[in-house]
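Posting this for the archive.
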Amino acid sequence: MAPGPGTRTTARYVPVTALLHASRSGAVYTTEVCRDAVRFAELAPEWGTLYRRCRTATPFQSHAWLHSWWLSYGQDGARGGRGRLRVVLVRRAGEPVAAVALALTHRPLPVLVHLGGSISDFSDVLLDDEHAETAAPALARALAELARTAVIDLREVRPGAAAERVYDCWRGPRRRLADSVCLELPAVPMDALLARLPAARAQRARAKLRKLDALGIGERVVEHTEVPAAVARLLALHRLQWQGRGVTTEHLSGRFADHLTRAVGAMAGSGDARVTEFTLDGAVVAADVTLMSGQLAGGYLYGADPGLRARKADVATMLLRAGAGWIGASGRTTLSMLRGNEPYKHHWRPETVTNQRLLLARSALAPSLHLVVARAAGRGRAAELVKRARPRARPRRGGGQG
């Protein structure tokens, strides 16, 4: 199809479908597919506008997080490889109304997966809330045009996410599978969280809080200009905290450090991330990164000096109190503990929310979709057997932590 009005074609980004007509309103949509990191960087202002207009967006759909992830994990050949970027942006009257950031992989079948990989707790598309009813079918048609030879595989989609709208209007084969478990609390002050607990458990929690106060642990929010140094301190504490124990090895890698420093620095500057440091006797003994979107905030990664355990300081309670103190006041509704079903999280009586895996394909690719589903089922059974065979893991905070 020939390029339509307002659609530019260069070596760096090309139109998949130039014009899309929404059947109910008659509105005309233009679609751009970005295929390299330079153009992806240039989309930041438009992406940011759309991100703010999508109520269900999570921090892992922010431009800063996705673009930084691609710089660390996409361009070096990992999880997609150079030249496999596929960022779709749909505009109405020149304004962005829908978007999704994907990478084309071969594992071994061609599959389009969301940017962010295993270090991201949620994936989703972006839809402008005001135009979602017509923007969702427009994005679905653009994706169908893009996915001529590949299955679309969206992992870790929260219930109620914008991607569900695209799934609902998809005209080809589709499957919805269960994915990771997340635990969530209401974004309320600490006193309200304590009131949710049985009396005996609340009493123990208050004793832990008094112990923290007696130790004189202070806290401060890091200015965004100080984020690089603060993230370096956090990662050093994280490494020390897990020394000699099982740890997510990716969190010790240079590319993860580069990504976290770059992404959190940008997100802190726009109000989508917060780095908190905790001090004792003038030294930083713990640090935490919390990621935020319009409705949700979640503790992503922390590091703590092992000496706090020796002084009977409950780090998990300390972090929860610090977050609850400001997240509710920010107008957000959900305090997410992110992925993971660790027992310590259940002490606070959270709601269990199961992420979804949404698989979409064109009719000709139905066999490929069925094969992806079969492989997912096989991996799920294998993971369950491994889980039963190994000892219970130490507590972790969020899917990004280990």
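The CA atoms of residues 251 and 257 lie 7 Å apart. Confidence is low (pLDDT under 50) at residues 1-11, 17-23, 77-83, 398-402.
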